[in-house]
Write a structure and sequence with these properties.
Length: 259
């Protein structure tokens, strides 16, 4: 048990990430998807903070990245996977393979969870040393899944759903799964990007917190979630373009003597 004394501040934030993801799963099982989504978004914040603390204050051990991947697996693979399953699997249609809609829901869930785990394993193995992410990060994938399900998932579970589109959403989720294991580069959220990302997260989290705290909230939740959806799409689609442009910009500055 002596090794527990080596747990640092960054590890506590990582554990908070895993705790929030586990708690989110309990709410998913209870059918409380709005609260579960809020908890997963808070886990994303913990995941960002543990990296900041680790970079600035160091770590007394080497297992931090493995602990991070385990927590991420819970919060950004298993919890969103259950949200996908709950939204699009209909028990009234029978078992998973006796109904085409249920088979699609099951396959989509499996793709997201398994490919997310592969993404995390690759990151913990060697990709953590890289200056950019290789493949779409699991927190970004999880956020997009939450927004897709809130807007186009089961209307019983999502009070501000604008329509039920199971095949389109499952198809999009499978694309996300392949993006996670792709070799496409995505920028790490640091510096000015961290400020923009923080403001975007606040746009999604604060209204959800207000809604959870008061069921009579008059906030235009559908419109807010649509804007949040647009912001996360900017990273998913624009991130690779940013990564492709950034090295060219640096080379130009060096050749002109401005660096």
């Amino acid at each position: 048990m002596r090794w527990l004394s080596r747990i640092g501040a960054a590890d506590l934030l990582t554990l908070a990430n895993g705790f929030l993801g586990t708690l989110a799963i309990t709410y998913v099982l209870d059918g409380e998807h709005v609260i579960a989504s809020l908890l997963i978004l808070l886990a994303v914040i913990m995941d960002g903070l543990d990296g900041i603390v680790a970079r600035n204050y160091g770590s007394p051990h080497e297992f931090g990245r493995f602990l991070d991947s385990i927590s991420d697996a819970v919060s950004f693979c298993l919890a969103p996977g259950l949200i996908i399953y709950n939204n699009f699997y209909d028990k009234a249609l029978g078992n998973a393979w006796g109904s085409f809609p249920n088979a699609v829901a099951t396959v989509g869930t499996m793709f997201f969870v398994v490919f997310g785990l592969l993404r995390l394993a690759r990151f913990a193995g060697k990709d953590f040393r890289m200056k950019s992410f290789l493949g779409l990060p699991t927190p970004a994938s999880a956020i997009l899944v939450l927004v897709l399900c809130l807007l186009w998932g089961n209307e019983v579970l999502n009070p501000f759903s604008i329509g039920y589109e199971p095949y389109f959403i499952i198809g999009t989720i499978i694309v996300l799964a392949f993006l996670m294991v792709s070799d496409i580069r995505y920028p790490k959220i640091r510096g000015k990007l961290a400020l923009v990302a923080g403001l975007g997260m606040a746009l999604g989290i604060l209204p959800l917190m207000a809604l959870v705290a008061s069921s009579n909230s008059s906030l235009p939740m559908k419109e807010i979630i649509v804007i949040f959806f647009g912001l996360i799409l900017v990273y998913v689609i624009g991130g690779p373009a940013y990564e492709k442009y950034r090295p060219r910009a640096r080379r130009k500055r060096k050749s002109s003597g401005t660096v």
